[in-house]
Amino acid sequence: MPRISAKICGLSTPDSVGAAVRHGASHIGFVFFPKSPRHVTAEQMQALAAGVPGHVAKVAVLVDPDDELLAAVAPAVDVVQLHGAETAERVAAIGHATGLEVWKAISVRTRADLTAAPSYRGAAQRILYDAKPPVGADLPGGLGLRFDWALLTDFGHPLPWALSGGIDIANVARAVTTTGASLVDISSGVESAPGVKDVDKIAAFLKAIASL
Q: Which residue range or ranges hold the N-(5'phosphoribosyl) anthranilate isomerase (PRAI) domain (predicted)?
C-alpha cells in the first residue's frame, strides 16, 4: 500500500473515472446533491461504477439523505460519505441499514469545530475534515476552500480520518506534512471548470501523491 492514498471526488464521466482508476486512486467519489455541478443520479453512478475494479472503493457523497436515496445508491458503492447535519444516531442508523462503511464530514474553520468529531465515535468509521463553507453557501463542500491545516496539529483524532478542502497538486505535500494525513480527498483541485474533471490533472495529482 502507498504511504498516502487519494480519493478523487465528484466524478461524472467515464473518462474521469478511468483516469482516477488507472493512475492509482484508492477511492472514487460520486456526488448525489442536485445543487452541485458534480451531481449524478443513481442510474448514472451505477453505469460509471460498473467497470471499477474491486480494489478501488466507490464512495457515495450524500447530504442528509433519506432512506429512499440510500436504498438506491447503497448497492453500488462501498462507502457512504455524509456531508449534512447528520447526528451520530443517524450516522449509526445509516451504517446499520446499508451495511457499509460510513464517513462523516466535519466542517472546520476554527479549532472549536473539531470538537464535533468525537461524538461520531462508534457511529462512523472515518472522519473527513473539510473547510466550512461561507454562511449561505449552496454547497457543503467542493468549493475549493481550505481551512488552516495547522488546526489538526497535535489533535487527538477519535477515528481514522481524511483531509479535504482546497487541496491541489501545488499544496498537497504541505497538506500532508502539516497534518499527517494518510488519505486526501480532492475534487475542484483536478478540474478545469466547476464539475468538469481534467484527466491530465487527475493523472498529475495521483503521480504527485505516489511520490510522497
A: 6-207
